[in-house]
Amino acid sequence: MAPSEERIVPMRLQRFLARAGVASRRGSETLMSAGRVRVNGQVVREMGSKVDPATDVVEVDGAVVRLAQGPCFLVLNKPAGYLTTMSDPYGRPCVASLVPTSRYPGLFPVGRLDGDTTGILLFTTDGDVAQALLHPSKHVDKHYVALVQGTPDEADLARLGEGIMLDDGPAAPAHAEVIGPDDALFRTVAPEGARGDTSVVGITLHEGRKHQVKRMMATVGHKVLLLHRDAFGPLTLRGCELGSWRMLDEDEVASLQRLTVKQRRTQ
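Structure (tokenized):
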């Protein structure tokens, strides 16, 4: 080896996986514990195990992982009927079947959408960015469009804007507005009987509690019939049809990184 050549010394397996963009170190340890990581064909669960990136072959879920890989970021336009999980013990449809998990080992969704909710779902292999985006202090805006029963009046919208009490505590203020009596997004998919006294509401919130939009709207007397998320922070579904995914471009990745760095500085 020439003196000018850099030699990457053996490193802990979870550090190797994190540097390759598979997952955070903690996430990498979870992959190892689950028996999803192989080194030279052998499953490795021992946390103290080391690998030599120059000679060892590391695989996650059967796909070879190399340090040349960077973290992956993509968005899925999630259709209804899919669970936001990478596997389900009952064999129900999961979002994992809609994204390139074999190409990007360790890919996982950032947050979740209900099974009957459609729209933008961010996936990454970067556990640190995911954790930063999901932290309650980050105030990452999510915008939803909802088909609801009836039409919220000014008092309803004001209550949402002031923050309302839910059964698990107060919800943070959310900006809501009536978009109109109809919306192209829901014209062909509204359930039978839902095209009567309904309206379309846009709502922006930065929390991520379970069924939050549905519970907030129900509290002000307007049941959600259909729900779609069309923005997550600076990301939109531009160029992404329902059921398809696309990689984030450099500007979008940079916007996420700026957001997480900004939020870390405010902690």
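The first strand starts at residue 11 and ends at 12. Confidence is low (pLDDT under 50) at residues 1-7.
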